[in-house]
Amino acid sequence: MSENDDLCPEGSKLRAEADKKLKSFNLFGSASKRQGEAADLYARAAAKFRVARLWEEAAEAYLLAAKNLEKSSPDDWVDARKNYEECAKCFAKCKPEDAIEPYRAAAALSLKENSFSMAAHLYKSLGEMCEQEELEMDTILEAYTKAATYFEAADAVKNQLDMLMKVAFMNARLENYNAAIEAYDQIIRASTKGASKSTGEIAVFNCVLCSLASKEYTTEKAESGFESYKDMFDGFARSTNGKLLEGIFDAIRQSDVDKWEGAIKEADRRSTISSFHRSLLSQAQQLKLEGGTDEVDLM
User: Fold this and answer.
1) 3-class secondary structure, 93
2) pLDDT at residue 185, rounded to an integer
3) What is the per-residue pLDDT across 72-117, written as a single tens digit (0 to 9) for each?
4) What does the H/E/C string look like for 190-222?
5) DSSP H helical segments within the chain, as ranges?
6) What pLDDT, on the 0 to 100 scale, is given for residue 184?
7) Are 111 and 119 in contact (CB under 8 A)?
8) From which residue to which does any coiled coil extend (predicted)?
9) End of a domain among 130, 155, 180?
10) Of 47, 126, 284, 288, which has the most beta carbons under 10 Å away?
């Protein structure tokens, strides 16, 4: 019995009927039939709890429905997946941490039937929920990375790039620059094959800044990457971001702080530089212009 039973007697009654159904013994009835009938009752109870805004009770009932559907009808993955997903949505409203495994279970069932698009959307929802609730960064990155992988498998290029942008951005914020550069590089190369050109140009700018901010990239290696990427996008060199990068590399070659700051000031006059980019520029200035650490070329 739950302390909230009186708040939703219809849901509580259906849940009790489901519990009783599972405990009953019928000489002429199979266990799978009882589990299927119980799953239906749990799902109906969950809907009642949901209307009453009893999110935890709804989530737990959906979870029981999903588990019993998996046992009673292993091949009927669609209904089990739907119940896991609804369970996750309800837990997200009351116990976000408990929503993680139901989202993963729903995605796993989707992949079992090669439904890549559905799995991708589920991992995307998981990542967004974890990001909103400020849960573990590793879980967020895992969710968005898997979403990108399965969107790619589903040939949903735009969605794939959106997820890769999130993966790259978060890794850059964590100063995991190699991982960020790898993700940005995927975006850039996809953008040259018919995907969004503007997304590709943003990725070029971010990728080069991450290279400059990384202890593992020399200035020469970062500039070489910039030159190769620049050739992929005809107008990038003439853009505000392209001119800013040209000014920065020129300032590094001349060891001129004034030139560096002038390039940033001019770019900021044309288009306000975000706090994310300012952070990368500050890190790059310390490493590449002011000699904050020894540069190591891993190539």
Assistant:
1) coil
2) 95
3) 887 778 999 999 999 999 999 999 999 999 999 999 999 998 999 9
4) HHCCCCCHHHHHHHHHHHHHHHHHCCCCCHHHH
5) 9-23, 31-51, 55-72, 77-92, 96-112, 116-132, 137-153, 157-173, 177-191, 197-213, 219-230, 240-254, 257-270, 275-284
6) 97
7) yes
8) none
9) 155
10) 126
Residue 65, token pair as written in the block? 């429905």
Beta-carbon contacts of 286 under 8 Å, excluding residues fewer than 6 positions away, are 292
Average of per-residue pLDDT across 40-58: 97
- Whole-angstrom Cα distance, residue 211 to residue 22? 59
Q: Which amino acid is residue 265, in one-letter code?
A: K
| The residue count for the chain | 299
Give just the sign of the alpha carbon dihedral 133, 139, 143, 144. positive
Say what the pTM is. Answer: 0.89
Report residue 224 CA to chain centroid gap.
Answer: 30
Q: What CA–CA distance (Å, rounded) separates 290 from 157?
A: 40
Per residue in 283-298, pLDDT tens?
Answer: 999 999 887 544 433 3
Single-letter amino acid, residue 106: A
Per-residue tokens: 218: 């020399």
| In the block, residue with structure tokens 């995907």 | 195
For residue 93, the tally of other CB atoms under 10 A from its CB is 15
Residues 92 and 180 placed together within one structural domain of the fold: no
Check whether residue 41 and residue 181 sit in a common domain.
no
